[in-house]
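=== RUN LOG ===
request id: a7f3
mode: sequence -> structure
chains: 1
length: 256
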Amino acid sequence: MQANTAMALLLSFAAGLSTVAGGLCVLFARAKSQRLIAGALAFAGGVMVSLSLTDLFLEAKETFCAQMGHAPGVLMTVSLMAAGMLLAKLMDTFVPQNLDANLTDQGSKRLLRTGMVSMLGLAIHNLPEGIATFTAAYANAQMGFSTAFAVAMHNIPEGISIALPIYYATKNRRRAIGMALLSGLAEPLGAVLTMLFLRPFMTTQMLAVIFSLVIGIMLYIAFAELIPSAYRYQYPAMLLVWLLTGICLMPLTNML
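=== RESULT ===
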């Protein structure tokens, strides 16, 4: 059991820290470009929409439908998703408008806030993923490896979507990578909490509740923050290309 616990923790840490691999994209980013900013924001929105509706929604709905029946299961998933949107709106009101007193440009302030809200939303999403990775690896090493790899492949574009807006707002590569790292650390935190406290209470139904709430949080961030912010730069064709790229990329990571 101790070997299982150590392996489960290791896999959760590795999966979570893969956000840094995505965040390292800022090392190759060029000088601030409105086209690239619009693309980065639209890409982040696409990642969140796709992750919510292709992975998390299906997983939560299948769990609830198996336990409650089809119609009640769908209704439960959608109701919790709506509750997640309200939670995100409440969370949004507590994020300060001016996160960096050194920034004087209004566009950079808005971009930094958008990046930080995205980081917070993805960190909340990574917490239950850490729980799921630890639980899978603790029960079965092979299933744990498969789960951790799938999560890591998802986390790389998540790291890109966090780091690029923050870098373009602040011109600080270290800060951008650090925010991607911070989001990823929520995953091993979920694993540690599961090991210490949650293991007796963690069920597939509890994970479905958490994932349903996370769907609402991420959809709110995508449609209320990321996509409107990208649209302000007035490159609609580029916005559409990057939005669709983010949407298409996440299902493709499940093929690996």
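=== NOTES ===
The chain has a mean pLDDT of 84.
DSSP finds eight helices and no strands in the chain.
=== END ===
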